[in-house]
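go over my protein:
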Amino acid sequence: MRLAAPPVGGAANEALVAFIADLLDRPKRDVHIVAGQKSRDKRVRVGGLTARDLGARLSGILPA
């Protein structure tokens, strides 16, 4: 995923969290970057969804 926000002052991380929260219809407080805060590669945790729910939401959004 590419973001328009620059990687300055955490703007890109904030944009990523907001995008994922909106995409999955979750509040931003449920989306956390757990690894890679200063890297291009990140690991994100989404609270309030089971793995099955997350998979179902993503399969309905992302192209096959």
About this structure: The chain has one domain: 11-61. The radius of gyration is 12 Å. The beta strands are 31-35, 43-46. The first helix runs from residue 11 to 23.
